[in-house]
Design brief:
The protein has 178 residues and is α+β, with helices and mostly antiparallel strands. The chain contains seven helices and five strands; from the N terminus they run H-E-H-E-E-E-E-H-H-H-H-H. A hairpin with a 5-residue loop joins strand 2 and strand 3. Helix 1 packs antiparallel against helix 5.
């Protein structure tokens, strides 16, 4: 998809497929993630971003929020690469208690993180588990196999690569807070 950041709030096909998968929290052993059917509106995103940072001079234009965890932390596509499509932008998480971090370097890698059983919240709070030699085939694996343009790698490698590419994301975000 060649969708570029702007006013369009439709989900790329891969994220639309993710919304059709049932996420099981499994008493804390599963993925705590509730995807949305569409990106939040620009107004909702700006309102959330201003409240999250406490800085009412900001807007949320750099983010396309597409899901949340049970406590209200939000997963978003972060438009950090000017002129590139949404599918090539990093995925980030900003928690309800101020936690934040880069989850994946692009949407394709985010699909592999999910397929490995790691959600946005879990990647920020706990990193990723040791690679599993034979991860079970799930609906999320099928979504990733249909849409991913990057090779499958363990979630921990994807998360580490993304954080190495954007090492100051959390510090830069914290600097915006009042």
């Amino acid at each position: 998809m060649t969708q570029t950041p702007g006013g369009d709030r439709r989900l790329p096909p891969a994220l639309a497929d993710v919304t059709r998968v049932g996420f099981d929290y499994d008493g804390g052993e599963g993925i705590d993630f509730e995807p949305y059917d569409a990106f939040e509106s620009a107004e909702e995103t700006t309102d959330w971003f201003r409240h999250w940072t406490g800085n009412h001079d900001l807007d949320g234009d750099a983010y396309r929020v597409f899901g949340q965890d049970g406590s209200g932390g939000l997963a978003a596509v972060w438009c950090a690469r000017p002129g590139r499509p949404l599918t090539e932008q990093p995925v980030v998480f900003m928690g309800s208690e101020g936690e934040s971090g880069v989850v994946a370097g692009n949407l394709s890698d985010f699909l592999w993180v999910l397929a490995d059983g790691v959600g946005p919240l879990e990647s920020v709070l706990y990193g990723a588990p040791e690679p599993r030699p034979s991860a079970p085939r799930t609906e999320l694996t099928e979504v990733a196999e249909r849409h991913a343009t990057t090779p499958r790698r363990p979630a921990r490698d994807i998360i580490a690569e993304a954080r190495a590419e954007f090492p100051t994301f959390t510090e830069d975000l914290d600097a915006l807070c009042r």
